[in-house]
Amino acid sequence: MTNWLEDPIRWIAEWLYSVLVGWGILPSVADVILMITGAAILSTLALLWVLFLIWFERKLIGRIQDRFGPNRVGPWGIFQSVADMIKIFTKEYITPQGADKVLYNLAPVLAVASVLLIWAVLPFTRSIMGVNLNVGVVYIVAVGGGGVLAILMAGYASNNKYAFLGASRAVAQLISYEVPMVISLLVPVLLAGSMGLNDIVQAQSVPYLVMAPVAALVFFITSMAETGRAPFDLVEAESELVAGYNTEYSGLKFGMFFVGEFLHSFTAALLFAVLFLGGWRGPFVDQVPLLGLVYLFIKTMVIYFLIILVRASVPRFRIDQMMDLNWKVLTPLSILSFLVTAVIAKVLEGQFLFQVLGLLAGNVILLVLFMEWGERRNKRNRRPMVSQPRPLATPASDETSMAQS
Amino acid sequence: MSAFQIVFLLIALLTLFSALMVVFARKTIHSAFWLILALFGVAATFATLAASFFVVIQVAVYIGAIAILIIFTVMLTRRSMEESGDQLLPGWGWAALVVLIVFGGLVFMLLQWQGIFQPPQVLTAGGENLENLGMALVMPDRYVIPFEVASVLLVAAMIGAIYVAGDHKKRS
């Protein structure tokens, strides 16, 4: 029996296990029951947590835009999301004519599931986690494919042009941004020498934000794009696409897409905290492991705050700008940072302090050079105007007609 | 029959059924989604063998990339891909013959192998040694040539795709 103060979750699990075995249930069956209970509790808590996140985000964006935000239901409007949730439960489901029924109903489920599956491998404290999968990082990438699939399903099955256009756009965006994200994920894997998330946390005696700031920056931007929020929310650009892939969804089915999106951006912040900020590490965490949970959530909330701040202050990208940012900036930057990290980490292997300082210096130099190069390139080839301004009365010369054709 | 065998049979049935549905579905997009389920079944089989790396790679590569590519092509040709006529082609008997011969050959080959009658070995912790796999891929006397050939093929495909998608009007 472990001490209950040290590790309450495991203590409860062991107690439940002994109770179940005491009732005469086979040990292997008791194991399965415990696993299912744990999964159910974790995913329910995650979904309930979204209620708070929605209120938090609305309130914060309200303050940024000089409004009050929700302030009617409960103190500071904190129960607003609960009221919204009850409202959305009671709404009617509408299935459009010509929709592909099975796929249409499967899509919202898959959208939420693909986000919740990530939570299975996140280490909340030293010992509280679903599984310590030794290929955790690849698992996260693989599970992300489910979200893409859900959007595709929703767009196809709705039998609506705008939903379909939105889905095509979303998938193009998600698949493109997966490339720099995966490369930037390689950097912590390289430094920790493991793909398991808990091993990566344990290896961070110095947070990887210090050792690999460029990879952290790329991961931050790409994970924001993966969640499809502003400034990357052209998936649901209202003026062009109505509401994107979820145009035809109503009631709780729309609610699931909505919850999935909020949970996804929180999960992205959680992943950033785990991979680059040292997860549950912090002072006194060896004596009281439960403190790790507090540290992890503080770090996550800081990152989540940043994500909302970016959402509230940056305008939406145009599609060519978004693709430019991905393929011409983030992808080469992530490849370069991977190369620089690999070389420096190998050359300075053994002397830990020099390794950290060398990596930091290398990354900063890389970033400065890269930005300088980008600046020069921008000056050299300015974006051409769509058509030259010309007086109305004169006939078009050869040059302008060429430009227009 | 142990629980392990029951799980294996269920997964195998699911995989085979969805593989059949890939062929029999009338809409091509349904075939693509059934294909995803079939590939998922293969991943689940890997999971029962405790080969977590292969599970994850199977999902990432086949479901995350190839299936999405297929669905993209299918979706962009939506109306023309709906089949309404007879699903059997005239020469289906010959195809069935070839399939039977290949299947019989595979079963025969597998029966020659002793390992098929033994229960799978339980892997010890760390028994799935990824380092060996990584080393084998870059060792000259192992798989370095197939590995490099595959990389060259992928790069060629990528360059070809960029060329096809590129804007040729500017040059002419």
Give the tags:
heterodimer; A: 405 residues; mainly alpha; 2 domains; 15 helices; B: mainly alpha; Four Helix Bundle (Hemerythrin (Met), subunit A); 6 helices
Q: What would you note in describing this structure?
A:
- The complex is a heterodimer of chains A (about 400) and B (about 170).
- Chain A has 2 domains: about 1-90, no CATH class; about 90-375, no CATH class.
- Chain A is about 70% helix and about 0% strand.
- Chain A is built from 15 helices and no strands.
- Chain A has helices spanning about 10-20, 25-65, 80-90, 100-115, 135-155, 160-190, 195-205, 210, 215-225, 240, 250-275, 290-315, 320-345, 350-380, 400-405.
- In chain A, helix 4 (about 100-115) packs antiparallel against helix 5 (about 135-155).
- Chain A is globular.
- Chain B is an all-alpha fold and about 170 residues long.
- Chain B folds into 2 domains: about 1-80, NADH-ubiquinone/plastoquinone oxidoreductase chain 6, subunit NuoJ (Four Helix Bundle (Hemerythrin (Met), subunit A)), CATH 1.20.120.1200; about 130-165.
- Chain B is built from 6 helices and no strands.
- The longest helix of chain B is centred in the middle third of the chain and has 25 residues, at about 50-75.
- The termini of chain B are far apart.
- The interface between A and B is medium-sized, with 24 and 19 residues.
CA distance, first residue to last residue of chain B? 71 Å
Mean of residue pLDDT of chain B?
80
Question: What's the rounded overall pLDDT mean of chain A?
Answer: 83
SS summary, helix count of chain B? 6
CATH class of the largest domain in chain B: Mainly Alpha
Tally of separate domains of chain A? 2
Number of domains of chain B: 2
Beta-strand content of chain A: under 5%
Global structural class of chain B = mainly alpha
Q: Give the total of beta strands of chain B.
A: 0
Instruction: Encode the helix/strand succession of chain B as letters.
Output: HHHHHH
Strand content of chain B: under 5%
How does the major sheet of chain A shape up?
Answer: none
Radius of gyration of chain A: 24 Å
Tell me about the biggest sheet of chain B? Answer: none
Tell me the span between the first and last alpha carbons of chain A: 78 Å
Please tally the β strands of chain A and state the result. Answer: 0
Question: Quick one: which chains have the greatest interface?
Answer: A-B, 24 and 19 residues
